[in-house]
């Protein structure tokens, strides 16, 4: 694809009028055989390697030309969305656990140009014969520091054995690793290092919040009261803790969701969608969400538990101050907790019981039991709600369409009336179930 068309698609489909310096340099090096890209979380690495890839492959080659491996489902989904937006004329298929294998198999029946996926799911397809990489020339390892950890090494080794025609490798991450395994075959790679360009540390404020009690729930409650309706992600170290903190803050009336690895994929997708569309203001999250989550305009990161490592700290903080935005970091420290040396903070914050004024419009979400696989589009949903729901188009918020369901943001005060009016209606002559989510959300 010509660079001019790539840039035009980025502008028209993603609303980005000008790519940043890191993305420009990646495009300039598009013809290099092997590349390593190091750049902060939230700096636009996905767009950088996606644009670079499209500059060097041609559509409709009757085989998989490029494989992008990500360490998590969430990152696979985000990467696939970026590619599908800008890769006009190219077929992209996303493969990950937690949704229907048969949907992926059907999509793979005609070889896509680009496959995005997690190591386990890609290997599953290879072993079942539903995909083959015999003619694949390009491999991209996103978040390679995680993709090449011990837990993924065996799967990655088996995947690369199925790529005899591999001639190009691109590795990206926010953090480097000491040694890249020899089986990757990365020789004479050029490193593009933007870790210190427009550094995040200059765009964030870091505050220590002292909890008088070992149990930090009361301290978190006061902090969330202070933050008001700002979009916030609070990180914990354990799934059980995520559930406990979630139950506590929702019992106090906060608009919040929970996100961890024990939830089903559709539950995790729904939690992110409801945070993005404004139904939630807070997400309680394990480190599973520290990489790859596509969440707009996160104002605050709260470390309810101290991070287990500097790497975890970097990736958690990377959910805010993305691209050129600013953000605030709050570290809740218990009475006997020592702040690690790698955490450099600006001040200690003393909390009172005063609450910030909530200035936002209350949002609710309608969930429809039909999505992409049922050929439902955003235009279909918008037209249906205007025609049958008694709501103007201007009041319909963000519309998210997943494989077999969709989520629509609407004003909370009007949501019950809308649900009553559309309850027995069909959309595109299909009988669809409708439900309403108002915070607090639970599966």
UniProtKB/TrEMBL annotation:
Example of a GO cellular component annotation carried by this entry: cytosol
SUPFAM superfamilies: P-loop containing nucleoside triphosphate hydrolases
Coiled coil location: none
Superkingdom, taxonomy of origin: Bacteria
Keywords: ATP-binding, Helicase, Hydrolase, Nucleotide-binding
TM helices/strands, residue ranges: none
InterPro entries: DbpA/CsdA_RNA-bd_dom, DEAD/DEAH_box_helicase_dom, DEAD/DEAH_RhlB, DEAD_box_RNA_helicase, Helicase_ATP-bd, Helicase_C-like, Nucleotide-bd_a/b_plait_sf, P-loop_NTPase
Domain Helicase ATP-binding: 26-194
Alphabetized PANTHER family for the sequence: ATP-DEPENDENT RNA HELICASE DBPA, ATP-DEPENDENT RNA HELICASE RHLE-RELATED
Protein's name according to its UniProt entry: DEAD/DEAH box helicase
Organism, scientific name: Candidatus Limisoma intestinavium
Lineage of origin: Bacteria, Pseudomonadati, Bacteroidota, Bacteroidia, Bacteroidales
């Amino acid at each position: 694809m010509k660079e001019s068309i790539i840039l035009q698609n980025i502008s028209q489909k993603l609303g980005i009028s000008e790519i940043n310096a890191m993305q420009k340099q990646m495009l300039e090096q598009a013809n290099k055989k092997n590349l390593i890209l190091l750049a902060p979380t939230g700096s636009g690495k996905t767009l950088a390697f996606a644009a670079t890839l499209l500059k060097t492959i041609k559509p409709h080659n009757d085989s998989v030309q490029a494989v992008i491996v990500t360490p998590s489902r969430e990152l696979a989904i985000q990467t696939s969305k970026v590619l599908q937006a800008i890769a006009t004329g190219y077929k992209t298929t996303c493969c990950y656990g937690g949704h229907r294998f048969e949907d992926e198999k059907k999509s793979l029946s005609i070889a896509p140009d680009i496959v995005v996926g997690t190591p386990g799911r890609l290997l599953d397809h290879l072993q079942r014969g539903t995909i083959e990489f015999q003619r694949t020339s390009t491999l991209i390892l996103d978040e390679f520091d995680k993709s090449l950890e011990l837990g993924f090494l065996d799967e990655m080794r088996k995947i690369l054995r199925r790529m005899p025609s591999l001639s190009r490798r691109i590795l990206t991450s926010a953090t480097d690793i000491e040694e890249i395994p020899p089986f990757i075959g990365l020789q004479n790679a050029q490193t593009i290092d933007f870790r210190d360009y427009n550094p995040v540390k200059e765009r964030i404020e870091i505050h220590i919040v002292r909890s008088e009690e070992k149990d930090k729930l009361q301290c978190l409650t006061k902090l969330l009261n202070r933050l008001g309706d700002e979009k916030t992600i609070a990180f914990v170290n354990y799934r059980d803790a995520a559930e406990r903190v979630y139950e506590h803050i929702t019992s106090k009336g906060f608009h919040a969701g929970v996100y961890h690895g024990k939830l089903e994929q559709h539950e995790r997708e729904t939690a992110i969608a409801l945070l993005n569309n404004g139904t939630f203001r807070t997400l309680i999250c394990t480190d599973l969400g520290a990489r790859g989550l596509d969440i707009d305009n996160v104002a605050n990161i709260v470390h309810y538990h101290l991070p287990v490592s500097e790497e975890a700290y970097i990736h958690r903080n990377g959910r805010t101050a993305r691209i050129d935005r600013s953000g605030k970091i709050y570290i809740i420290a218990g009475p006997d907790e020592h702040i690690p040396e790698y955490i450099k903070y600006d001040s200690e914050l003393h909390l009172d019981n005063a609450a910030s004024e909530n200035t936002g419009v209350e949002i609710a979400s309608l969930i429809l039991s039909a999505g992409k696989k049922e050929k439902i589009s955003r235009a279909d949903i918008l037209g249906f709600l205007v025609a049958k729901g008694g709501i103007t188009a201007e009041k319909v918020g963000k519309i998210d369409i997943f494989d077999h369901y969709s989520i629509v943001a609407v004003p909370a005060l009007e949501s019950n009336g809308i649900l009553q009016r559309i309850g027995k209606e069909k959309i595109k002559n299909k009988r669809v179930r409708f439900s309403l989510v108002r915070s607090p959300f639970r599966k």
